[in-house]
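SEQUENCE AND FOLD
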Amino acid sequence: MALTKNKSRLNLNIDSDLKENVGKILSEMGLDYTTAINIYFRKILTEQKIPFEISIRKNLTVDEIFGKNWRDGLDEIEDDWE
């Protein structure tokens, strides 16, 4: 494919197994790598963000979930159980 004035080449290093497995899925969808990457880049451009969430999952403490005062009143509840 000859590059035209509005095209540029992008060289990537990617895991071979990942490339092969994604290639099979893209083929079933009737897409090639170039089209898939162009779709991805256009989505980033229109949404001005990566089109999926990227995060480090944090294990929350009980205090973070329920607030620092979640223990208030537990003594009374325990007394009622006795």
